[in-house]
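Recap slide: Zinc metalloprotease, sequence and predicted structure.
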Amino acid sequence: MNTVIAFILMFGLLVSVHEWGHLIFAKRAGMLAREFAIGFGPKIFSFTKNETLYTIRLLPIGGYVRVAGDDPEIIELKPGHHIGLEFNQDGKVDKIIVNNKDKHPNAHLIEVESVDLDHELIIDGYDIGDESERKRFSVDRKAFFIMDERETQIAPYDRQFASKTVGQRAMQLFAGPMMNFILAIVIFIIIGLVQGVPNDQTFIGEVQPNSPAEAAGIQSGDEIIQIEGSSISSREEFISIIEKSANKEIDLVLKRAEQTEELTVIPKEVEREDAKAKVGQIGVGLAPGFEKSFLGTFKYGFMQTYHTTKLILTNLFMLVTGQLSIDMLSGPVGIYDVTDKVVQTGFMNFLMWTAMLSINLGIINLVPLPALDGGRLLFVAIETVRGKPIDPQKEGLVHVIGFALLMLLMIVVTWNDIQRLFL
């Protein structure tokens, strides 16, 4: 049960922060954000606030922010349509009843001649059964279509995605991944504040039985401060000297319980795991050292995000170039399985895992593939270069095909996850 709760909270946090970035910058640019969704598929829960429908959906495979003009509009009024109009206190149309007009006895019924809900916000038409007088009706900027008793707010052109500048559109698309990187930085800072910032002090962790270290009297918790009379500046330096000193006596100075001790150890020659060389080992594991540093904590947050980003990009490059198999990818099932293992190791490791997934989500969404943020940013970049936008229908078709392929990939990855778990 702990894993289920942890997974739900983690998934909700990662997707909510990502989509919140899209939502905030859409609203800042004056776009009409129709829906803020966590998950896909059937709605489990929904409410409306400030023109936006907030929904939680059944399938935990992502989320989206649906912006006016950026989604397929399903309501289009054409000449000859019979519709009902309801008016606000200013005499402007605030409800356009498309069907089921008998449920709106107070609606003014007309036959449509022409409509402009993008720029002029007018409807021209005739009263039903009386074509002697053409009438013009002004439409409120926040009027609603009523179809099947469901409301859909109209979107004047200046509130649609396509009406905004290249910079505003690019920022709205980039904001989601950006928020994932910011979330990772914040989580790493929290980890640093709670447990301290890792340092390069060489503390001994586990001492293996019957090892050169045990024979020399080295104990868990000792801090190595000198080798052969020289101070140790980093853990990497300590490991390098040991590996180069197989079968040689090494004089150590270590700190134990605030006192210094001098010991001599002889690293044993062993073959490295990659079988490419033989190196010296003394049979110890190094324990991470931590220190409390307020400024260092913020540096740690940014540096951990940088190093994790670099690692994920390296693995992504290896995947694209065929150096890693697609079997290395994991979907929701695989992530849940790893989350189960991580939760059992402690809350700090769970926070670390959440930060890594947040970075991964940000990077994957920036990959220039159709239907992803990166793919849509690519179209904005192409528009910038050619000086005019690509045909929206063609771009929409590309994204639909891309989304279908992504769903197919998700199915394959999920099947691989299930096989790893049960086969």
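The chain has three domains: 1-31+163-196+294-423, 82-154, 198-291.
The chain is about 40% helix and 30% strand.
(End of recap.)
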